[in-house]
Amino acid sequence: MEDGRVPGASVAVVASDRAAAAGLAHARERGIEALAFERRGRRREEHEREIISALQERGVELVCLAGYMRLLSPCFVAAFRGRVLNIHPSLLPAFPGLDPQRRAIEHGVRWSGCTVHFVDETLDGGPIITQRVVPVRADDTPETLAARILVEEHTAYPEAVALVASGGYEIAGRRVIRQSQKSER
């Protein structure tokens, strides 16, 4: 937002399910409201209803997940259908879920990367907005591959958020088509 890559949008609130999350401190440093919603052994839907309420009270129009390591309930997805984005460190649909870099290396793929996608009720399965590709090197470890993917995530996520915020796309089945691509079909 600060460098203008997502024009016409602002961050309303930063939320986490962990009070010690670094993102909350970064938000506060920038004068952005930061909220923690501890799970405290609650059921997922009960926990998420508290988050939904807080986001709706603040007029949140788009929810951008990063590092949220829990599937969202159908209740949350329904409350923000078509308005929840997630970034995942693999070229989905390959290697959804946990440890994608380790699994990519073990599987012997030559290319990995990151995917920004809409969130639906499936694990890392919503329509893909954008992807970035990085080579998997012979000497890669999960950590070195993750570091190169992270560089691409910092480009891909703002690009995807800007596209969604602009409304310059349509969803056709599982594909996200930019308005500029419609004439290319």
Folded structure, characterized:
- By secondary structure, this protein is α/β, with parallel strands linked by helices.
- Helices cover 35% and strands 21% of the residues.
- The protein has a single domain, classed as 3-Layer(aba) Sandwich (Rossmann fold), CATH 3.40.50.170.
- The strands form three sheets. Strands 3-4-5-6 form a four-stranded mixed beta sheet, with helices on one face.
- Strand 3 (63-65), helix 3 and strand 4 (84-88) form a beta-alpha-beta unit.
- Helix 4 packs across helix 5.
Provide a brief overview of the structure.
This protein has 185 residues and is α/β, with parallel strands linked by helices.
List the helices and strands and how they pair.
Layout: E1 14-16, H1 22-29, E2 34-36, H2 44-57, E3 63-65, H3 74-79, E4 84-88, H4 100-107, E5 111-118, E6 128-135, H5 142-166, E7 169-172, E8 175-178, H6 179-182
Parallel strand pairs: 1-2, 3-4
Antiparallel strand pairs: 4-5, 5-6, 7-8
Helix pairs in contact: 4-5
